[in-house]
Amino acid sequence: MTNETKACRDISALSPVAQRACRAFLRECEREGLPVLITETYRSQVRQDYLYAQGRTRAGKVVTWTRNSRHTGRMAWDICKNVKGQEYADAAFFAKCGAIAKRLGITWGGTWDTPDKPHFEVTKDWKGKGDEEVVKYYETLDEVPTWAKSLVQDMIAKGCFADADKLHLSDDMLRTMALMERYVKEKLS
Fold first, then answer.
1. What span, in angstroms and rounded, lies between the C-alpha atoms of 137 and 28?
2. DSSP letter string over the chain?
3. pLDDT tens digits, 60-83
4. Contact criterion met (CB below 8 Å) for 38 and 22
5. What angle do CA 143, 145, 146 make, to 5 degrees?
């Protein structure tokens, strides 16, 4: 018997495709230093109806707008910022999480007409990107990791980029540039 008052936070309770999406999302959030905490994954229909009644036929603030949720289909998860006192107050945190979701092809509830910033979902035909396919691009010198800044700065100064605000460099590109720089220096010495 399920307890309609208790949230399930177990990623393995999601469908296999949603598990992959959720784990890819969490990996990318971690890479970007975002302290994400899963607050809910699967919901039984009993729990969804219980939440829907809140603010309507039961006291409390409205927390869901539908009885037909992707949570009941095991295709959605909710998050908060894992910092005491800032769980839902940091709009920039949710916007960054939303940008990661967009990059991964995950729907973010923060873009809806009635925004639901903690909510993320996928459809059964979601085609995820594995670790090797998720690529972060650095568009400006400020975004480039410290270890590669001087190299990129030198290349900008030499006119190697048409637009210094649209570098579009991945980590692999930066590593290749660093290796080429070392190779050229060795050949010239």
1. 13
2. ---TTS----GGGS-HHHHHHHHHHHHHHHHTT--EEEEE----HHHHHHHHHBTTTBSS----S-SS-TTTTT-EEEEEESSTT-TTT-HHHHHHHHHHHHHHT-EEGGGSSS--TTEEE--TT-----GGG----B-SGGGS-HHHHHHHHHHHHTT-SS-TT---B-HHHHHHHHHHHHHHHHHH-
3. 998 888 888 999 999 999 999 999
4. yes
5. 115
The whole-model pTM stands at 0.67
Among 65, 32, 67, which Cα is nearest to 46's? 67
Residue with tokens 């590593």: 175
Cα distance between residue 51 and residue 25, in whole Å: 25
Q: Give 31-58 pLDDT, tens digit per residue.
A: 999 999 999 999 999 999 998 999 999 9
